[in-house]
Amino acid sequence: MAKTTKTAANGLKPALTQDPHAVREPRANNLEMAIGHEVRTYRKKLGITVADLAAATGMSVGMLSKIENGNISPSLTTLQALSKALGMPITAFFRGFEEPKSASFVKAGEGVNLERRGTRAGHHYSLLGHIENNTSGVVVEPYLITLNAESDVFPTFQHEGMEFLYMLEGEVVYRHGDSLYRMQAGDSLFFDADAPHGPEELVSLPARYLSIISYPQRR
What is the 3-state secondary structure (H, E, C) of 73-91? Predict the structure, then answer.
């Protein structure tokens, strides 16, 4: 009944774009990096190339590339020209510089118990942290979910974003689309949450698992 799949069918590790051990540029270069990041972000939002922006501002492609990569400190005159070409206020260039970064710490047993939209009887959700208006553009909701003898099975949850499950205790058969996964402590499941999903069979109770949901941040 249960189906399992490998991360990569060919046995090769997937190419990851993030380095978990990466470090930022030296602090002295943070302002230039922040400005460059905003220039690149606004340019891409407009769907124009570096060459297009160079033509609109009268700057060279090489100069713009250095600005976007944080290699030089642009003058106020340069920022004014970029502001006009990109249709953004000059102050927006400094938005990411020393912007406070938030963290959420929750002691054991102190998560916020709540009813999520579509919550079924006996599905206990404890929100383990939440950060609003973060700089990543992604909302992440980490939940500790507990199922007991009074819990309903409900394999047709559907919502936007991606979801990651990590089984802590008990055993459930979890459905995602047309596939069934027998999940025990230590098992994990990562999936597109737009497909119908949820516990199909409660095998051993109580069952507890982490559910981490992520979706684009609406500004």
Answer: CCCHHHHHHHHHHHCCCHH
Angle at 186 between CA 182 and CA 191, to 5 degrees: 60
Cis peptide before 206 (omega within 30 of 0): yes
Amino acid at 96: G
**Residue for token pair 């009887």:** 121
pLDDT at 30 over 90: no
Q: Is 143 helix (H, G, I), strand (E, B) or coil?
A: strand
Residues whose CB is less than 8 angstroms from the CB of residue 216 and which lie 6 or more positions away in sequence, other chains included: 137, 138, 139, 160, 161
pLDDT in tens, 39-98: 998 999 899 999 999 999 999 999 999 999 888 889 999 999 999 999 989 888 887 666
H helix intervals, the chain = 30-46, 50-57, 61-68, 76-86
Distance CA 101, CA 158 (A): 31
Under 8 Å between Cβ of 200 and 175:
yes
Q: How far apart are CA 32 and CA 34, in angstroms?
A: 5
pTM, to two decimals:
0.60
The first and second tokens of residue 172, run together, are 């459930």
